[in-house]
Records
---
Amino acid sequence: MRLPNMFAIIAVVITGGILLYGVSDFPSFGDPKSPANAAVPGSESVSQYFITKSYKDTKVPNLVTSVLADYRGYDTMFETVVIFAAGMAIFAILGSVGGGSQPRVQEEGPSFVDGDHSRIIVGTTCRLLVPVIQVFALYVIGHGHYSPGGGFQGGVILAASFIIIALSSDLDAALRRLSEVNYLRLACVGILIYAGFGVLCQVLESNFLDYGVLQPILLTDGPEMARSHSMLGVEIGVAFTVTAIMFAIYANLSSRGTLRDGL
Amino acid sequence: MAEFFEQTLQPHFNFWIYVILMMIGLWALIAKNNLIKKLIGMSIFQTAIILFYVSLGVKEDATIPILDPYGQAEHAAAEAEGAETEGEKKRDSYIGKKSPDPDTMANPLPHVLMLTAIVVGVATLGVALSIAQMIFKEFGSLEEDEILEIVKGGSVDD
Amino acid sequence: MTDQIPAILVLAPLFGAMIIGLAGQKDHRACFPVALVSLLVTLFASIGAIFTVIESGPIDYFMGGWEKPLGIGIHLRIDSLNVILLVAIAIVAVLVAIFSIRRIGDKNAEKTPHFYSLYLLLCVGLFGITIAGDAFNLFVLVEVSSLTSYGLIAMGSSRRGTLAAFNYVLMGTVGASFYLLGVGYLYLMTGSLNMQEIHSIFVANPDIASSKAVAISFILILIGIWIKMAFFPLYGWLPNAYSYCPSSSACILAPLMTKISVYVMIRVMISVFGLGWVFASPGYSNLVVWLAVIAILAGSMLALAQREIKKMLCYLIVAEVGYMVGGAWLADEQLWGLTGSLYHILADAAMTLCLFLAAGIFAKRFNAIEIDDLEGLFKKAPWTAAGFVVGALAMIGVPPTCGFFSKFYLIRGGIEANHWEYVIALLISSLVNAVLFFRIFEIAFFGVKPSEGHGHHEEEEAELKEEHHPEIPNWTGTSSLLVASAFVILLGIFNGKVVELIRVALEDLTVVAQRF
C-alpha cells in the first residue's frame, strides 16, 4: 500500500501544480467582460448572441433550453445516444435480455398488503405519490421552455416514479408496468423521434435539425414558432429515452442482471 | 501574505476550490484500494470539472438566463404603482427594440455544456458499477489487492 | 445530395442501431443484415465525399443551419485531411462486421442484438469524431465511442477481462475529463468553442495566444488524448483490455480507437493551435520525441517477452502509437514527419486489422491463444496464414506493403529534423519485429518447439486442437482477412496518391498557420 500512496501523492501534486499555474492568467470570478461572457476583439461573442437574439430566433424564453435544443441540438442528440449506449452496455455486461424466460405470476392488487403490516404505510404512501410525481414530471418536460426543466430533468423524475414502485413493493411490480421488452423499445423510439425530426428537415431541403423549414408541416405562423414546437418534440423524445434507460439501469443493477428479485 | 490573498486568491477563489476538489478526486482514484471508492473518486473528479465550467458563466449581480416575455415582473411593478400594462406590448418589446442587457443575465452556454457533461458522467458511472458487480460475482471481493492476488495466484483464466 | 454527406455518415449507423434495438430482440438473424446495410451506406457516402473534396474543396456543414456568426451552431468539416480516414473507418467496420457473423461466442449468443447495436454506435462515434469541427462536440462523440467500447470490452466472459475493463473505464474517463478541462480553459480565454474560430482568435490576438492559460490548456488536451491513445507512460490499460475481450470487439477496437485519437491530436495541433505556436520552443517537441522513442523501444521489447498472441499484438500497438506521435512532433521544415504520421494512421489501421483478424481466427477455430499453440497451423489454414504473413511483413516494413512506405516517410522526416534517436529507434523496432514474427513463422510453419523434436507429434496435436463449428461459415473470417491484406498491399502500391492528398491537405491548413 505504500507504493500507490507515494505515486498518488506525486501525481496529484504535479497535476495540481500544472492546473494552478494556469489559473493566474484567468479573468476574475464574476467578470462580465471576460472572454467567455463578452467578445474578444476580432470575433463576435457567441454567448452575447444567445442572450440578445435567441428569443427573436426561437421565441423560447428559457435561453438554456433554446441553446440546448436548437443551436446545439446535435450535441443533445448525442447526449441521448450516450445514455442509450450506457443502457445497452449494461444489458450486454450483466446479461439481461428481452423477453423474460420465466413467466411472472400475474397478481392482482397491491402485493404488499398481505398481512405485512410493516409495509402498509410506505406502500400506500408511495401508491398515492406516484401519479403526483408523474404529473410533475410531465410538467417539467413540457414547461422546459419557460422555466428550468426540459427532457432530461423530466425524464429522470418520471423514471423515479417507477423506481419508487420498485422500492416500495418489489421489482416485479415495477416490471409489470414497464417490462424489459418495452423499455428497450421506448428508448429506441425516443432517439428515433429526435433523429426523425432532424431527417424531416433534411427531406425538406435543409440541413439536419434546421427546424425552421418545418413551418408548413407544423402549420405555425412563422419559422420561429416551428422551432419552438420542434424543440418540445425533441425534448419529448429525449424524455422517453431517459425514462426508459434510467429505470432499466436501476432494474439491472439492483437485481444483478437477473431481473428477478430487486432490493 | 495579505497581498497574496488579495491578488492571487480572491479574484480566483473559485478556480482554487475546483482544483483542490479535483485533486481529492484524483487521489482517491489512484490511491484507494476499494473499487467503489475509486468510482467515488472518479465522480468527484468529474463534478469538480462541472463546477469549473458553471463558475465560468457567473456575472456579478446577474440573474438566471430565463427571459420574462410576458413582462410579469414589470406588470407587478406597474400594478403596484397603479398603472396599466398590456402583456402583448411587453412581449413584443423583446423583438427589435429592447433586447435584454447581456450584463444582467448569466451566460447560458456553460450550463448547456454541463447538462451534457453531467449526463455523460452518470452514464459512465452506471457502466462502471455494472462492471464492478461482475467483478464481485467473479472474484467475491471488491478490494483491488485481493483481486490481484486471486488473479496472479489462480490458475488458467476463463 | 452530396452536401448532406456529413449528416448521412453519422445518421446511417445511428438508424441502424435503433432498428436493431427495436427488431433485433425478436429475431437475432435480422441484426447482421441491418448492420451491414447501414455500414455500406456510410461506405458509399465516404467514397462520395472523397470525390467531392477532390473536386470542390472542403465540405462545411452547419447543424441546424446556423452559419453566422461562426460558433453558435455546430460545425462539421470534411477536408482532405480526414476524408481518407473516413473511408478507412468504413472499410474496417464493414470487414469486421463480416468477420463477426455469429462469432460473438457460443456463451453469448443471446447478446447478439446488444453487440451489433453497440458496434454501430461505436461507428457513429468514430465518424463523428473524424468530421467534428467543434471542440465540445468532439468531447461528446469521444464519450459515445468510449462508452460503447467499454460495453464491447466488458461483454466477454473471461475473468481477467472484467478487471481489465474496469481499469479501462477509469483511465478512459480520466482522459476524457482532462480533455474537457482543456477545452474549458480554452473557452474561458477565447470565448468560442469552434475550432476555426479559436484559431482565428489566436491569430488576431497574440497576447491571448501567449498566455499561460492557453499553454496549460494545450497540455491538458494533450494529456487527455495521450491517455486515450495509450501513449507511454499512460498505456497501462491497453494490453489487458484488448487481449481479454471477445475477438470481434478486439478486431474493431484495436485498429481504430488509438489511431483516431492520434488523428484528433494532429487536428488539434494544426487547426486549433497552429503548428507555428506548437513548435515554437524546440525543447518541448524534443521532449515529446524522446517520450515517443521510449514508447517505441518499450513496446517492442515488451512484445518480445509475451507468450500470448494478442498481448504481443497489443504491445506492438503501443510501439506503433510511439511511431505516430514521434513523427507528428518531429517539427521538420517540410513536414515529412507529419505526413508520415498521417499515412501511418491508415497503414497501421490496415496492418493491425490484418493481424487481429488472423489472431481471432486462430483463437476461434483452433483455440490457439499462445504462440506455442500455433504449431503447424500454417499448413492447416493456408489462407489465414497468408493474411497473417502479409500483416507481419507490413509490421516489419517490407516493400511493397504499406509498412515500408510509412517507415520511409517517418525516417525521412527524422533525418531532416536531426532527430537521430528517432531514426535509430525505428530501425531497432523493425529489427525486433522481424525477430518476433520470424520466430512465429518458424513455430507455425515448421512446427518446431525448442524443447521437442520435429513434427512427429504435429498431426495428433493438431487434431486435438481444431474445433469444428459447423454453424460458423469459415469463409467469412478468411475472406475479410484476405481483403484486409489486399488493402495492406494496395495502400503500399498507391502510396504516392495517398501521400499527395495528405500533402495537399497539409499545405492548405498550414498556410494559415505559418501566418501565425
---
Amino acid sequence: MTERNALQEENLRQADVAAGTDRLMVEIRGLTKRFGSFQALRSIDLTIRRGTVFGFIGPNGAGKSTTMAILATLIAPDDGIVRVDAIDVTEHPKEVRKRIGYMPDFFGVYDQFRTTEYLHFYGASCGIPRAEREALIPQLLELVNLSDKKDAYVDTLSRGMKQRLCLARCLVHDPELLILDEPASGLDPRARIEMREIMKELKAMGKTIIISSHILPELAEMVDEIGVIEQGRMIAQGSVAEIQHRLKAGRILELRLAGRADEAAVLLEGEPHVGRVMRDGELVRFQFAGGDEEQAELLVRLVGRGFRPIAFSEAQTNLEDVFLEMTNGIGGTEA
Amino acid sequence: MNGQSAAKDLLRDWRTKLINPVLGKEFTLRMRTPRSMWALLFYLTAIGVLAFGFLYVFRIDYGIGSAAFDPDRSRIMFLFISLAQLGLIAFMTPGLTAGVVSGEREKQTLNLLLTTQQSSTSIILSKLVSSLGFMTLLVISTMPVFSIVFLYGGISPGQVGTVFVFYLFTMLAFGSFGVLFSTLMKRTMLSVITSYGLTLFLYGGTAFLYLILSLMIQSTMVAQPHAPGHYSWLGYLMGLNPAAALVSIFEPDVSRSVFRVAWSGQTAAEAPIELWQEYFIVYSALTVAAVLLSIRHIRPVLKKKRKKARN
C-alpha cells in the first residue's frame, strides 16, 4: 500500500471510530449480485461486531455461499459496499485477505503433500517466514487434533480430518475473521462433535466467526447472532432470543395425545388462531396466534371431542423452528 | 560459524526469492506423481526410436559396413531430429499446461489458493515456469540422442544450442497459450482440446493454408513477369509455422522461397523478413498477451467505479 493510500485508510478508520462503527468486523450495505438472469443477492445489509460468532442460515441457493465468497474476495459484487475490518473488499482485496480465513463448502486438498507440508505451503503463501511456521504448525495441528498425523500424506486422511486440516489452514496466518461455509457438512456425528469443540476454542480465542450450517442445533450452541437469508434477501438478523421474541405472535404449542394424533392434526388445521401444523408420531406441534384464554378454550374443545391429551404446553423454540418459521413467512415475516 | 549462518540465510533468501511457494508446490507435486516418470520414459523412447530409426535407414542406404556418414547427410539427420523433437514438444506442451489452472478449479483448490497473499502474477508465472521446467527437463534429457550428430560432423555445438533456445521459446509461447485457455475455460477437457486445436492449426493449418492459397493464386492469376524484389504476402503465413521458422534458421533460402511471388514462380531477391524473425516477433507479442490475459482473469475483477459515494 502506498503512503497516500495508508493515510487515506487511516482517515477512514478515524471516521469509523467517530461514527461508532470501529467495532464492526463485517459491514455489508446494499450488496447485490446477479449471475446471468439469476438474482443471487438482493440488496443485503449485514453487520457483524468483532468477536461475534455469527450463524448464517438459509435454504440451499439462498445466497449464503455467495455472500461468503464476496467477503473472501472471490466474487465481485455488482453493487453495494462490503467491508472487512473497515477495509473495502473491492478496493483493497489483498489487505482483506490478510484478515480472513476462508473455508468453502466444497474444497480439495493436494493429496501428494504431507500434512505439515500442506500447512507450510499455505503458511508460505500467506507470507509467514519459515522459522515462524516451524513453531506454529505443531500448535495448529494440536488445535485441530491432528498431531499424530503430521507426517501422513493428505490423501490418507479421513474426510473429517481433511476438514480439520482445512480449518488449520484457515488459521495459519492468524486471521481475525473466519468465514466457514458448512464446515461440518458430510461429517459423521463424532467428527461433527470434534468440529464443534474446535469452534468453541476459536470462539474463546476471540475470533470473529461467520459460520453457515444446515445442522441448525449445532449452530445454536455456539452462535451469538444469526442471520436468516432467503432468496437473496436478509430477512432477519439478531440474537436467537431477539428473533424468537420478534416471532412471539407465532409461538409453537405441543400436544401429546394418547392416540388419534392424525385426527387431532386435521381438526387443529380448522381451528381459529392455529397456523401450520406438524406431526411427529403422537406429538402434534402447531403455530398458535391466540392468547392464554384461547389456548384453554382449544384444550376444552379437544377434550370435548374425545381426544385424550397427555401433555399440552408451549414448545421451547429452537433455531430450527426459527428458521422454518421465518422461511415460511409465519409471524408476519417476509418469505 | 556466524559467516556460515549468514551464508545459509543468504542462500535461503535467494531461494525464497527465486522459488516462491506456488512454484515450490508445483515442482514438488509434479515430481511426486508416477505420471512424470512415464512422460519422461515415453518422450525419450519416442525421440530415441525416431533418431535411431533414421540412423538405421541411412546406414542401409549407404550399405552396412560402408564408410562414415557424409556431413551433408548428418545435417539432414540433425534437421530431422530437431523437427521430430519440435513435434514432440507440440504434443507435450498443451498437455502439460492446459490444465494448470482449470485442474485446480476442478479439484476445488483454486479458491483456497486465491485467498492467500500470492498475487495473480505469481500464481500464473509459477504455473507456467513449473510446466516449462518439466518440459525443459524432457528436452535436456534428449541431449545424448542429439549428440549422435557430432559423431558424423557437419553440425556445430552452437547450432545445437540455437535449436535448444528455439525450443525454449516455442515451449514458452505454446505453454502460455495453454495457461490462458486453462484460465479462461472452466473445464480442463475443453481447455486441452482448444490448446491442441490451436497447436494443430499453427503447425499444420498454416502450412496447409499456405499451400492451398498458393495453388489458388497460381491457378487464377495470369503468369506475368515481376521485377525482382516482389514478394507474396503469403510468406507471412509461414512465419507463424514453428517448423518453417526452425528450418529457416539453418536454411536461409527457405525464407526467400516461401516469400516467392507465387504466380510467377520467381523467387524474391530478398525476403522482407526471415521466417524465424517473424516467428519470434509475433509469438513474443502473443506470449506476453496470453500471460497478461491469464493474470487478469484468474481472479475476479473487483475494482470498479463506484456509483455511490462512500457513506
